[in-house]
């Protein structure tokens, strides 16, 4: 082993379905000084290796001649955070495929290697990427610690050097400002990038996200439309997604479905079909939803991209189209393929209950509905809760159905998507006139309980207010209004008691992490994060101890 070689300590993984190509790539890696090389022939084998060992470099062929191609594997690894921050991912592809692969990808690898490749090609890309990593190391280290302010400071230091990594640092800074909720500052950085390089795609997409975070959906829509009309942006998937989201929030749900149809034409992946199916189902366009989910279900079979939800939503769409028998066949097939688990089985029972009632087996449907309902319900406004509610409606259990729907509405009383789904479910069962009253009742019920918690707070009963608001959170763990109130009240408790109670600080951080998933880039979340930072800094100064030490 050449320990004095700069790449001698790197561990590499080669993913290629052809043994001869594995040997070639392994030899080329040896030539550049990388001796610790593993090789696998499938996505499943790659996942097992990556979960069991830390790699610094992965070379993956795009065409794996399997259900999962190299791009899908890469996206799965990134989306599920299976790649460590210091792992480089190089995609190997034929030159004839490069344009299509690179221009329409959910995630972009660190480098593309065009066949036929040489050891020199690998070394050149590796050297460039390692230089980039070293130059941006202070930023990535701060990001790894989730210290966003330190990361911004590190980005400013790189920007001050005005070297070849300036634009990379500018991109990091803009993303960080957006994550911190400093929407105006982020917008300014993105505009600076566009002044330096007009038409820069990542800056335009970032500007769309800044508009979205500020609630400026019309501006987001206009910019996305403009980008998609350019040659470079015509296959930009984030632009399609941001446009569809803006259209739906502006009330034009049919246009959102059409936008996602165009995205599917650009990239007909299972994930794209799934996004189209979700939007079409919410819109009530069951024909499009059925077609999209059928393709997602078929395309995901045997792939790491497969999701049990595909079979469930497809079956529900079939039932709502009056195809109960076909829905039952689909669910039986999904079970036979090993798609199981308590959550899947419960929703499958709820859909089967509807299908059996529809096909004339009312007693069997009632038994299935009761079995599903007795398994308990989620406290979310999700597909599962509404499938259970539909099963209850189909079997004449209206009170149970309304209770489930109220729970779904209270899970996020401001979510118009859930309100539309509830309205459609009631309408489908001849009870559409009850929808608005139910929506108003759910919203008022939650607002009343929130008001009571705030009343306790105003009267100086902070502990009692916390008990009340956290009881609401236990009932509705994804209600963003309740999460924000819990965050604020716990910070107030820390300030008023002048105590850095570690468990409470951890609780607040958990609330913020959940909020950032539910409301990414939202200004109110950033305000709460700033409030926590200010609280910790104030208590640290007054207490004479360091925050990190006290919370260790």
Automatic annotation (TrEMBL):
PROSITE patterns the UniProt entry points to: RESPONSE_REGULATORY
Domain Response regulatory: 11-130
Pfam families: Response_reg, TPR_16, TPR_8
GO biological processes: phosphorelay signal transduction system
UniProt keyword list: Phosphoprotein
Record PTM 4-aspartylphosphate, positions in chain: 61
InterPro entries hit by this protein: CheY-like_superfamily (IPR011006), Sig_transdc_resp-reg_receiver (IPR001789), ST_Response_Regulator (IPR052048), TPR-like_helical_dom_sf (IPR011990), TPR_rpt (IPR019734)
PANTHER family: TWO-COMPONENT RESPONSE REGULATOR, TWO-COMPONENT RESPONSE REGULATOR ARR22
Protein name, per record: Response regulator
Organism encoding this protein: Inhella gelatinilytica
């Amino acid at each position: 082993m050449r320990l004095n070689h700069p790449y001698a300590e790197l561990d590499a993984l080669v993913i290629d379905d052809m043994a001869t190509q594995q040997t070639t790539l392994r030899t080329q890696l040896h030539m550049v000084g990388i001796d610790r090389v593993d090789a696998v022939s499938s996505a499943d084998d790659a996942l097992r290796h990556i979960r069991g060992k830390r790699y610094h470099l992965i070379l993956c062929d795009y065409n794996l001649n399997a259900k999962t191609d190299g791009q899908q594997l890469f996206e799965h690894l990134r989306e599920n955070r299976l790649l460590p921050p210091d792992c480089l991912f190089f995609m190997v592809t034929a030159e004839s495929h490069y344009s299509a692969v690179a221009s329409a990808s959910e995630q972009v690898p660190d480098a593309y290697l065009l066949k036929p490749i040489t050891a020199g090609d690998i070394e050149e890309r590796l050297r460039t990427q390692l230089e980039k990593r070293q130059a941006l190391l202070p930023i990535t280290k701060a990001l790894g610690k989730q210290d966003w302010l330190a990361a911004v400071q590190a980005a400013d230091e790189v920007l001050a050097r005005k070297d070849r990594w300036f634009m990379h640092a500018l991109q990091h800074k803009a993303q960080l400002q957006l994550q911190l909720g400093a929407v105006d500052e982020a917008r300014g950085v993105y505009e600076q990038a566009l002044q330096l390089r007009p038409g820069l795609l990542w800056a335009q997409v970032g500007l769309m996200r800044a508009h979205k975070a500020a609630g400026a959906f019309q501006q987001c829509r206009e910019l996305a439309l403009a980008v998609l009309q350019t040659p470079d942006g015509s296959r930009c998937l984030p632009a399609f997604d941001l446009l569809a989201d803006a259209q739906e929030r502006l009330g034009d749900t049919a246009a959102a479905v059409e936008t996602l149809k165009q995205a599917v034409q650009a990239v007909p992946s299972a994930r794209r079909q799934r996004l189209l199916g979700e939007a079409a189902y919410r819109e009530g366009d069951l024909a499009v939803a059925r077609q999209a989910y059928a393709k997602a279900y078929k395309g995901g079979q045997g792939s790491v991209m497969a999701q049990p939800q595909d079979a469930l939503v497809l079956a529900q769409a079939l039932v709502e189209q009056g195809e109960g028998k076909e829905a039952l066949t689909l669910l039986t097939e999904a079970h036979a393929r090993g798609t199981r688990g308590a959550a899947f089985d419960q929703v499958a029972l709820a859909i089967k209950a509807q299908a059996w009632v529809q096909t004339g087996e009312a007693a069997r449907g009632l038994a299935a509905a009761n079995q599903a309902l007795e398994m308990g319900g989620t406290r979310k406004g999700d597909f599962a809760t509404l499938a259970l509610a539909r099963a209850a409606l189909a079997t004449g259990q209206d009170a149970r159905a309304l209770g489930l729907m109220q729970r779904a509405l209270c899970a996020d009383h401001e979510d118009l998507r859930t309100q539309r789904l509830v309205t459609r479910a009631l309408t489908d069962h001849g009870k559409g006139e009850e929808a608005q009253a139910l929506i108003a009742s759910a919203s008022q019920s939650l607002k009343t309980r929130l008001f009571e918690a705030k009343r306790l707070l105003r009267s100086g009963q902070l502990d009692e207010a916390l008990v009340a608001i956290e009881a609401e959170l236990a009932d509705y763990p994804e209600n963003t209004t309740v999460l924000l109130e819990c965050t604020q009240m716990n910070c107030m408790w820390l300030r008023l008691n002048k105590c850095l109670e570690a468990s409470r600080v951890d609780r607040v951080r958990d609330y913020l992490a959940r909020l950032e998933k539910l409301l990414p880039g939202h200004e109110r979340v950033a305000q709460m994060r700033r409030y926590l930072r200010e609280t910790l800094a104030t208590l640290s100064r007054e207490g004479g101890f360091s925050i990190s030490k006290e919370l260790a």
